[in-house]
Write a structure and sequence with these properties.
Strand order of the largest sheet: 17-18-19-20-21-22
Shape: flat
Radius of gyration: 33 Å
Strand content: 25-35%
Number of strands: 22
Number of helices: 14
Length: about 525
Amino acid sequence: MTRFLSVFLPRWPIERRVTRPGDAASTMHGRKPHEVEPLVLVTTTDNGQHITALNQPAEALGFSPGMALADARAIHPALRVAHADLPGDERALIRLALWCQCFSPFTRPDFPDGVSLDIAGCAHLFGGEAKLVDTLAQRLGGFGLTARLALAPTIGAAWALARHAPSGRLIVSREALHRHMAPLPVCALRLEQNTTEAMEKLGLKHVGDLIGKPRAPLAARFGPSALRRLDEALGHEEESFRPLNPPHLHAAQCRFAEPLVTQEAIEIAIGRLSRDLCAMLEKAGKGVRRVELRLFRVDGWFEALPLATSTATRDAGHLSRLLGERLDRIEDRAGFGFEAASLTAFSVETLAMRQEDLGDDALTTRDGDIAPLLDRLVNRFGARNVTRAEPHASFLPERAARAVSVLKPAQSYDWQAHARCVQDGAAFARPLFLFAVPEPVTTLAGVPDGPPTRFEWRRVAHRVVRAEGPERIAPEWWRAPLGASRKTRDYFRIEDEAGRRFWLFRDGLYERDEETPRWFIHGVFA
């Protein structure tokens, strides 16, 4: 007997942005429903911006999907607006459909706001159909998602009841299918909008109005698709269910004739698993970014060693070396030994084949040559302690780059363009050595707003012979942290009598600030 469960998420695009796993279903960022501000998601078309999704407070104001944003703002000027991420919504819905496979192996996303499950033969594992529906509803509510669920013998009926039935949680048998489907609107049959509007103009507003009517006139006026959808919903015609295929899992496993206790034996097993896993990855044209080694003890427990790499790799020697360096963490937890082991790749990327150098330029540095070293440093000191610089959108020089973990996927950046500030057509290059925190200096200036004629830094006096500037940088008042300077900076390129060049700035303007502006050195040129 076929049984299909349809999950309808009426506010899916909104709730997937404002909730986190583990939040209560009735809260958004820890706020009660009556405290949440009206929020809508919009898309831009040739006819302007229109609402595609909205939260419950926005629905209470009378807004609906398809409404023009200008009309909505005329009603409620303080309306919060965000741009819809339709591809992101689809990807998130696919991930949710994959998660639903813990209830049934056959699931699929119903774009743009639902998931369907074929639960035939699965309900008894959860104590019956009612228990399965309650468990799924509770889990989705724990994710902060508002869900309506319907269980029916056909795909079309489950889809229609989940979206249009009075109850938000419904289980329908085949005998009661006609009775529950008859009062639903004709749009519940998944028909095109023009077909639905044509039926409503003729007085065919409910599914029951179509049941028992002569089929030939209906097919001639509305086309064969309308009758096919009706037959599929009522179970008179079969509808194919194409489940979502889970991503392929790359994993290598092995069992041992005798339990392994010594570190040397475990390292040999790790080398074998690494070779098997990398062979699978090479055949699939993939590289791994995150793996996990599991060593299963004789008593049924297991020890897990996760590992992440800075770049995608399928070098078996590199993986086995990194995992071997972590064995000291479980050295005292082997117990009576390990009887089995597995190595699983949880994050893979496409990795093309690369021809090794055969000529005299074999020692030439290539991109990725430093990756094995970075992986070993991360393996020993931790991901937070091995970082690289990444450009950051900020006008302040000390915030124009930030340190991120080397495990974060790297992107190509134009550092020269990022390190250059253009003002009035003149380009001011940044110094090669920039201080993380500007250091104060004592200066002597000929005029208040001009460059200094002398300055003292680290108890050494410097006489200025050349100066270029100023380059004015305004404060980032919209995101300045508490205690940070909110004054305008004037930067000067200074050269002393010894030919050394410095980058100094005056923090503040004499005509604007009540306090006397101070001077700082922010870097030195080569």
